Amino acid sequence: PCPGIPIEWDADTFYTTYPFQLHAPNAKNCAPYDLMIISGIPKARSPQCLGGTVTLEGIQPCAKCSRLTLDVKIIREKASRLFEHIRNHDDLNSTQLRAKVALVKEKVDTLRFEKLDLEGSLQRAQARLSQWRDLFQFIGQNPCSIPALHRLLANAEKEGWSSAKTLEYCRLAAVGKYTVRNYTQYEIDLAVLIYE
Length: 196
Prior knowledge:
This protein is mainly alpha-helical.
């Protein structure tokens, strides 16, 4: 029988980088040779093998098997590439597939965390919007019952109050439990003028 040609494999280790799926009966890109492992050595044999030739050096591969060197080289070269450089996913070996899965998992995790961040931001924005809505609704319904509203709002802006804190002080001012201070110079001058 023809011994086939040895598969010279320089891409890491044979069993993790060789695309064995190319030999499946239903493979889209079927390898043009049959894979054999004889005494731990991977070999390629043509499906149209003519049988070996007996020489003084032993049994030599037939002409059809000898021409498989280029086909093996092409498959070996693809197996040594990064998965991003291979268009057809059916040609990926297990190492390339694991690298691709790791990258996709990383992207999925990134998108999941971005989604969680966006959901949190949306909830915070909705809560703030609700607080502002409550503040404007209270001021709109009680514009005359909040003494010195313009000063209260000026203090809120100056002190950096939140909408919830501003609403709280508006409610306290409306029932007389908070008196607004920090008069403007114009208000002080006006009060002095009226007093005189």
